[in-house]
Each structure stands twice: as C-alpha cells, then as structure tokens.
Design goal:
Helices cover about 45% and strands about 15% of the residues. The relative contact order is 0.13. The protein folds into 2 domains: about 1-40, no CATH class; about 45-265, Rossmann fold, CATH 3.40.50.300. With about 270 residues, it is of the alpha/beta class. The chain binds zinc ion.
Length: about 270
C-alpha cells in the first residue's frame, strides 16, 4: 500500500464519481515495487457488509450530532462521545481506550455507541475497522454454529480481534427493567456455561490485548459486579472515565438499598 498517492478527494470537474478515489473502485492498488495490495476500501466494505448482515447500513447510521440530549446525563454522554472520537488516536494505545454507556433503557445508548463506531469506520483519514456486535443476535449466531469448529473460530475470532468492537446491549438476556433476572428459586441469574463459552472469551481476549470496545448495556456497574465481579472490573477498568451511567428514580431506589449515603449525591 506504500507508494500509493492519495488523489485529492473531491473534484467538482470530474464526471467520474468513484466511491474510492485511491483505487477507483477496483479494490487493489499497486505498490511502489510493482506488487499489488488490497486497497483500504476493500476491508471497509467487508466490514460494512458485516454490519448489513445484522440489518444496519453504515451510511444510514444516525450521527452523533443528531443525538438530542434531554438532561445533564445525556448531555454528558454526548460530550464524552465527541471527546472520545477526537482523542481516539491518542488513547487507543492506553489502558483506558474503551467507551461504556450503562443503565436505563431509552437513553439513546445504542445511538451514541453506533454513531462513534460508524464515524471511526467512515473517517477519511485512517478509517478504523469497527466490527458491530449486537449482543443477542451475535450470541445466537455463535451458539447456532458452535458445532462447526472452523466457522465458529472464524466468527468468534472476528469479535475477539476487531480493531474496535461495538457490543450493543451486552447481557440483554440477563436483565429486565433494570434488574438482574431471577431463576425459579428467586436467585439473581449468574453467568452460565453458555456465557462462559461464547461472550467471556471475547471480553477477556480484548481486555488482555488492550483492544478498545464500545459497550452499551442496561446493566449498571453494580449489576455487572453482581453478575461477575472480575469481568465487571475489567470492563470498567478499560473504560476509565469514558463512561456514563444513566440513573433514573428506579436506579436510585435500588441504590439506596445498597449504599445509602452515596445515592443521595446523585439524584437526577
Ligand atoms: Zn479503494
């Protein structure tokens, strides 16, 4: 790919409209030594096709500036997302390179993390291969293919090694109305064998290899802790300050039961 000069991106006088001005939509570029390499746009298109498989057209994803905050917390989430995008190239190599939105449904968490991902994927300079993983659908697909070792490894590996991974609605199957679901004995659900097999290795691989993950989940940090303390710790550690917890009355009510004093400072 070296030796390829990027032509100026827009020229109003050319009748030709290429989606990629580097390779003129051929998908290959010639290197300085005469050999050929896949153009950057090729990887991007493959990735966009993966998004489309889950029903999301990257070009149609709502942008961050279309997100309308309606209170302090949602405004904070938008600002943090903008900040994350701006500083992405600097923080990608740090320990706190992930982004997390936790808590209440209906706060637009998905809009924000998907917008961050799409913006990174579509940016003109150094587009980032961002893989989209809608939690429930993706886990369903992994489970359905768990007998096919080769294909399973390919699927799971895609989520493990993605340069950036969006996990939308993590642990959606464990939480209802802001609370962990309960089993028939009235105990909170825990991670089960299937979770250990399918999602745990992905989160773990990404943690160990310092790979950024954009996470939305109805779990609060506390619910994540209840689910699995070590895993929650790792997720929160990687987000650092790039995270927002959406707190509603219900949340505060629950919090009071856990930590009486702390909840009083954060009444929204
Ligand atoms: Zn190209």
């Amino acid at each position: 790919m070296d030796g390829v000069k990027k032509s100026s991106m827009t020229s109003p006088h050319t009748a030709d409209k290429y989606k990629c001005n580097i390779c003129k939509d051929v998908g290959w570029v010639q290197n300085g030594d005469g050999t050929w390499s896949r153009c950057k746009c090729y990887e991007k298109e493959c990735i966009e096709r993966l998004w489309a498989n889950f029903g999301v057209k990257v070009a149609d994803v709502k942008k961050l500036n279309e997100y309308k905050p309606y209170d302090d917390r949602t405004a904070q989430a938008k600002n943090k997302a903008i900040q994350y995008l701006r500083t992405f190239d600097k923080i990608i190599n740090t320990n706190e390179n992930s982004f997390g939105l936790f808590g209440q449904a209906g706060s637009g968490k998905t809009h924000i993390i998907v917008a961050i991902g799409a913006a990174l994927l579509r940016r003109e300079k150094d587009p980032v291969p961002v893989v989209y993983m809608p939690y429930l659908e993706a886990i369903r697909e992994l489970k359905a293919n768990s007998m096919d070792d080769e294909y399973y490894a390919k699927l799971s590996g895609r989520y493990c090694t993605a340069k950036v991974l969006i996990i939308d609605d993590l642990f959606k199957d464990k939480i209802k109305n802001g609370k962990l679901m309960q089993d028939k004995y009235g105990h909170n659900v825990a991670l089960n064998e299937a979770d250990m097999k399918h999602i745990y290795p992905i989160l773990n691989y990404r943690y160990i290899n310092h790979l950024p993950t954009l996470i939305s989940t109805e779990c609060t940090p506390q619910t994540l802790m209840e689910l699995d303390e070590a895993l929650a710790g790792r997720i929160l550690e990687r987000c650092g300050s790039n995270m927002v917890v959406f707190q509603g009355e219900e949340y505060n009510f629950r919090m009071r039961k856990f930590v009486e004093a702390a909840a009083n400072t954060e009444v929204s």
